[in-house]
Design a protein that fits this description.
The chain is of the alpha/beta class and 588 residues long. The chain is 64% helix and 10% strand. It is built from 20 helices and ten strands. A hairpin with a 2-residue loop joins strand 9 and strand 10. Bound molecules: adenosine-5'-diphosphate and magnesium ion (MG). Adenosine-5'-diphosphate binds next to helix 12.
Length: 588
């Protein structure tokens, strides 16, 4: 975040525009705040007059009681307005933040994978959770309080000067000092807030990544080093917060001192005036002195809070800027395709397809391939050869730079994106399960898929037995303490996922790689069921799993080296043969 001076009004105005749908609520909250800031300063005036008229001058106990009741009534009204203002502005804030969060998450969900390759998850989480919280404060307290404080400040000053301009000037002498202190403080706070933000993001990212990668940390015995690294970040985090608190802590005693100085000046004035006056005249000053004492407090509190609230505004605006940055960031795959009734039961053709993730480091080079409709095509090749990349392109998770990929005669770029993806199911090696029921993990929340269909699919795939044995069966909450699903079981769940979606095109990307021999038979059977009658792409390390494929494609460094059936490739004695012999020897 760049050093910015003052409030970024453009961002702030944009933030305010989010209150538009809640105009009524906004107006009501402002009304409460404004009324309150008029009633507050009126009270000292009334108390002063009450003292003058009914204590000093007339000792009229009936009137005194009446006035006291009026003042109590005012206090009650103040309390009610305070409650209403606070409740309404918090309601407003929560509504606005819900809208922004909805927009933000919706927008992020549309980003193409490239964005997530380059953005740490922790940073995104910080944006969606804690940054938005700071923006809430702008509406719930910052903005209203500033409006209210400003008005009551001005009103107090007017009342003071109308009452006694000489005394007003006298008691206002320390105010320039207060303004200077406030400016210094605000600057220091701004700096430490920015530092604090950077540290919080760092901390979130670190913790999130270490927890996600816990198995790696423990497997490689990195706990000590990671802990040390964490300590560093934690220290920085602490320091940033302490700096912020330091500036804050210094400021408040300074304000207290200055307000005491004002009161002292008030007393000095009184002492000077007393000279040569009759006791009658002196008594006439009582009401004024009482009113001014109360006003001085009413004057300092808003000035002190203004700086504080301005910080809330500033902090909210700085964070809003970062949230808007994401909202303005265009990173979605162009969904210009219109076709939504394409026949997926046709050959898939790669025509001179070249692709690079980064700049011109091409990982696929001039790929020409035809995947026949309804057949199984297997891809083999070393790690990093580009097998998964082919899958990424077919699902349009990344946009390729050259060539065309078509289904029949339709380029996949012309097909509506959601429609395309609905017709392709991809099963990956790492199965991601959400903290939800088995059922919802299979349907992914699609209510159109019934329990019967899920059970039917589970039976087909051969997973029904183990699911039934879980506590709660299909309603078992994944991730709860108790049963931990094995890799094979998770894989079977992902197969059911694909099965119930009944896609035209099926892709298994090393879906069988991390499975033990026992589950392998189950998975093999499931694979046979799943691939039957659909165009299937199978990526596998174990050659035993792909011998039945209608065609095997050997990829090497992003290029097609060989293709043919298992027997053809064995006979030709190329890379596939070598790979086969290697695995064969391994098994011996
Ligand atoms: N998201 C990505 N961003 C940048 N480079 C990537 C990304 N994914 C893969 N690559 C690179 O592309 C090449 C092909 O990767 P991939 O298709 O995953 O290989 P395979 O699946 O055959 O093991 C590798 O060199 C890999 O480093
Ligand atoms: Mg891969």
């Amino acid at each position: 975040m760049s050093e910015k001076k003052g409030l970024n009004t453009l961002v702030f105005r944009r933030l305010l525009s989010h209150a538009k749908p809640y105009r009524g609520l906004f107006a009501l909250a402002v009304f409460c705040t404004i009324t309150l800031s008029f009633i507050g300063p009126l009270r000292p005036k009334l108390i002063g007059e009450m003292v003058d008229k009914y204590i000093v001058k007339s000792q009229d106990s009936v009137q005194l009681l009446n006035w006291t009741l009026v003042i109590i009534a005012l206090l009650v009204i103040e309390g009610l307005l305070q409650f209403a203002g606070s409740y309404l502005s918090n309601l407003l804030a929560q509504n606005i933040i819900r809208d922004i969060r909805k927009k933000l998450v919706g927008h992020v969900l549309s980003f193409r994978m490239r964005y997530f390759d380059r953005t740490p998850i922790g940073a995104l989480v910080t944006r969606v959770v804690s940054d938005l919280e700071a923006i809430t404060e702008v509406f719930s307290s910052g903005l209203m309080d500033i409006v209210g404080d400003m008005i009551s400040l001005i009103f107090v000053l007017i009342l003071m000067f109308v009452s006694n301009w000489e005394l007003s000037l006298m008691t206002l002498v320390p105010i320039p000092l207060l303004i200077i202190a406030t400016r210094i403080f605000a600057k220091a706070m701004r700096k430490s807030f920015q530092l604090e933000r950077a540290q919080v993001t760092k901390l979130n990212t670190f913790v999130q990544e270490r927890i996600s990668g816990m198995s790696i940390v423990q497997m490689f015995n990195r706990e000590k080093q990671e802990y040390k690294k964490f300590e560093e970040i934690n220290k920085g985090h602490r320091q940033a917060h302490v700096n912020a608190v330091w500036a804050n802590s210094i400021f408040f005693p300074v304000v207290e001192m200055l307000s005491s100085l004002s009161i002292a000046l008030l007393l000095v004035w009184g002492a000077l005036k007393v000279e040569g006056k009759t006791s009658e005249e002196i008594r006439n000053m009582y009401g004024e002195i009482i009113a001014f004492t109360l006003w001085i407090y009413q004057l300092y509190r808003p000035i002190r809070q203004l700086a504080d609230k301005f910080n809330v505004l500033q902090r909210g605006t700085v964070r809003a800027e970062r949230v808007f940055e994401i909202l303005d960031h265009q990173e979605n795959i162009q969904n210009k395709g219109q076709i939504a009734d394409c026949n997926f039961n046709q050959d898939i053709r790669f025509d001179h397809v070249s692709f690079a993730y980064i700049d011109d480091q091409f990982v696929l080079k001039d790929i020409n391939l035809t995947i026949p409709a309804g057949k199984i095509v297997a891809f083999v090749g070393a790690t990093g050869a580009g097998k998964s990349t082919i899958v990424n392109l077919l699902g349009r998770f990344y946009e390729f730079q050259e060539g065309t990929i078509s289904i029949g005669d339709t380029s996949i770029n012309d097909i509506e994106l959601n429609y395309l993806r609905k017709n392709i199911a991809i099963v990956l090696q790492d199965v991601f399960l959400f903290s939800d029921t088995i059922h919802n993990n299979i349907t992914l929340g699609d209510p159109a898929i019934s329990r019967e269909e899920v059970i039917q699919a589970a039976k087909e795939v051969g997973a029904h037995d183990f699911i039934e044995k879980l506590p709660g069966g299909y309603d078992y909450q994944v991730g709860e303490r108790g049963v931990v699903l094995s890799v094979g079981q998770r894989q079977l769940l992902s197969f059911i996922r694909a099965y119930v979606y009944n896609p035209h095109i099926l892709i298994l990307d090393e879906a069988t790689s991390s499975i033990d021999n026992e589950s392998e038979e189950l998975i093999q059977k499931a694979t046979a069921k799943l691939t039957k009658g659909r165009t299937s792409i199978v990526i596998a390390h174990r050659l035993s799993t792909i011998q039945q494929a209608d065609m095997i494609v050997v990829l090497e460094r992003g290029e097609v080296m060989e293709k043919g059936t298992h027997h053809e490739l064995l006979k030709s004695g190329g890379y596939y043969r070598k790979l086969y012999d290697m695995q064969f020897i391994e098994k011996k």
